[in-house]
Amino acid sequence: MAEMLAHLSTVENPGYHLRHIPKGELGELSKVYEEILEALDADAQGASVMTLVELSDLLGALKAFLARHHPSIGLRDLEAFSSITKRAFASGRRG
Question: Stretch 45-69: mean pLDDT, rounded?
Answer without folding.
Answer: 97
